[in-house]
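Weekly sync, protein design subgroup
Attendees: M.S., D.O., the rotation student, P.L. (late)

Item 1: inverse folding check
M.S. brought a backbone from last month's batch and wanted to see whether the design step gives back something sensible before we order anything. D.O. pointed out we never logged the input encoding, so this time it goes straight into the notes. Structure tokens as presented (256 positions):
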């Protein structure tokens, strides 16, 4: 399984995008989230949005969903004059799917896309498949309804916390994960603020990685103000976790 980190930041800035993950096993795929810089993110790794057939929108916050209508439009545009893209399946909680549908119908009321978009309302606890990829979801602990998930193929597993306070409900999904991608947005000195806005610290991610015995922890959703201080984030996580800790850049690819 290949995991391409299309975006790794907590916010879009000049050279970094909000968190977006492309999970692939052969041609089976799942894109997680679709922030405002999704087209640039695909361009940076020389990939096509029209090859993506499944999308999980984790929640309604702008850094995770505002690129959705443009993503769908690009799937059409990239294939003009050639074979149309396959249908797109979009998964998310009720409010997230309603926002996605509203955005498409109002951004592009005049366009008849050459493929269908199938919307699937799911609740935390539900499972769906993308070919050989098995996706399990749970509710994250955030300020709005939000889905964390794991993706398994054979005996390989990647788990993703999404935007969330530390969440023990993620334990069964993340247990023994080959790769745990966990929010590590802030340092310990921002603990009060992190709790208020329901985000995790780097040390929270490290503690959870230790608890679930993950093989590898990747910290994402890094606050823009902390870019350049990756060593501090990494060291706060490593104080809690015996395994490997990395902080990906936009374009980093993990193979498990
Ligand atoms: Zn976010
Ligand atoms: Zn959020």
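Designed sequence read out in the meeting:
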């Amino acid at each position: 399984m290949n995991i391409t980190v299309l975006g790794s930041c907590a916010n879009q800035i000049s050279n970094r995008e909000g968190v977006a993950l492309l999970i692939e096993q052969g041609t089976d795929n799942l894109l997680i989230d679709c922030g405002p810089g999704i087209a640039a993110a695909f361009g940076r790794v020389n990939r096509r949005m029209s090859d993506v057939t499944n999308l999980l929108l984790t929640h309604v916050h702008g850094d995770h969903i505002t690129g959705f209508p443009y993503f769908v439009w690009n799937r059409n545009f990239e294939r003009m004059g050639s074979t149309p893209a396959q249908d797109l399946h979009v998964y998310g909680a009720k409010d997230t799917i309603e926002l996605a549908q509203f955005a498409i119908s109002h951004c592009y009321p005049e366009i008849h896309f050459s493929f269908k978009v199938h919307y699937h309302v799911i609740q935390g606890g539900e499972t769906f498949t993308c070919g050989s990829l098995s996706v399990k979801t749970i509710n994250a602990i955030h300020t709005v309804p939000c889905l964390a998930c794991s993706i398994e193929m054979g005996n390989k597993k990647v788990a993703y916390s999404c935007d969330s306070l530390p969440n023990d409900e993620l334990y069964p999904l993340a247990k023994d994960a080959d790769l745990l991608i966990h929010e590590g947005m802030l340092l310990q000195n921002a603990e009060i603020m992190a709790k208020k806005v329901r985000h995790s610290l780097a040390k929270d991610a490290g503690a959870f990685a230790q608890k679930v015995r993950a093989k590898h922890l990747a910290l994402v959703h890094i606050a823009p103000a902390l870019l350049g201080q990756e060593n501090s984030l990494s060291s706060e996580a490593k104080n809690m976790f015996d395994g490997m800790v990395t902080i990906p850049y936009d374009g980093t690819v993990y193979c498990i």
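Discussion: The chain has eight helices and 14 strands. The first strand starts at residue 2 and ends at 7.
Action: P.L. to compare against the previous round before Friday.
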